[in-house]
Design a protein that fits this description.
With 240 residues, this protein is α/β, with parallel strands linked by helices. It folds into two domains: 86 residues, Roll (Ubiquitin-like (UB roll)); 132 residues, Cytidine Deaminase, domain 2 (3-Layer(aba) Sandwich). It has seven helices and 13 strands. The longest helix has 14 residues. It starts with 5 loop residues before the first strand and ends with a strand.
């Protein structure tokens, strides 16, 4: 089995906004999550309809909205590559944008993080077949995985997860996110927009990810494997 990556055009109200390389699955979730984490909409119900149109060379997701979203200042001029969550942005201000502060009194345990990572390892059917995709999971405070989404791009997987939570009416604040990737800063940005207090990744974070997480109040955990976890920011939220 081979994992697919397909050009996915996202258009709002008839105007093309971005072309992302993504796994052609859970694309309704992807559009909602992308729209939220890019700051194009504030609520999932701002998208009044999403229609999938398949072409020989790719897929177009045609979204109608109740608000104007595809302004020239936010349109991406280039395609988003599989491993790139910010491709197409023209200004550093758009990349390192202001983020909402994370405010949460929820306490997590190291055991909950370990449990989520273990469960995530068994909840990746596409990766089990191909060995080529990332996964993002949302777990409750006890580490029980509730929702998982997969994609060849880690940022796409997270957008799909955030979209699935929003569409399902699940309060993202009530749990945390676990991912099968390094902790890159665009993942921190998306997690902050989603309002989760903890992001745990199987590999290490980058320096910029640590600084952004520290600034916004997000607890960033890396090397979350088996019984090990390394806390880089706001460690007081996690108890042994």
């Amino acid at each position: 089995m081979i994992a697919e990556e397909t050009p996915v055009t996202i258009a709002f109200n008839g105007v093309s906004h971005a072309v992302m390389m993504a796994t052609p699955a859970d694309l309704d979730d992807f559009v909602v999550g992308f729209s939220l984490t890019e700051g194009l909409i504030q609520r999932a119900d701002a998208l009044t309809s999403v229609v999938t149109v398949r072409y020989d060379l790719g897929i177009e997701m045609q979204a109608d909205t109740s608000v104007e979203v595809a302004s020239d200042s936010k349109r991406r001029r280039l395609s988003g590559r599989t491993g790139c969550g910010i491709c197409g942005k023209e200004d550093v201000i758009d990349v390192l944008r202001d983020l909402p502060k994370v405010s949460s009194s929820i306490q997590f345990t190291a055991a909950a993080i370990a449990r989520a990572m273990t469960e995530l390892g068994t909840r990746q059917p596409l990766n089990a077949e191909t060995g080529a995709v990332h996964a993002a999971a949302w777990a409750d405070v006890d580490g029980r995985v509730q929702v998982v989404r997969e994609d060849v791009g880690r940022h796409n997987a997270l957008d799909k997860l955030i979209g699935a939570l929003a569409r399902g009416g699940i309060d993202a604040h009530a749990g945390f996110i676990a991912m099968t990737s390094r902790g890159s800063f665009e993942l921190v940005q998306k997690a902050a927009v989603a309002g989760v207090a903890l992001l745990a990744t199987v590999s290490a974070p980058t320096g910029l990810a640590v600084r952004v997480a520290n600034d916004v109040g997000l607890t960033l955990a890396g090397f979350a494997r088996e019984e090990r976890v390394t806390l880089y920011t706001h460690p007081s939220r996690v108890t042994p």
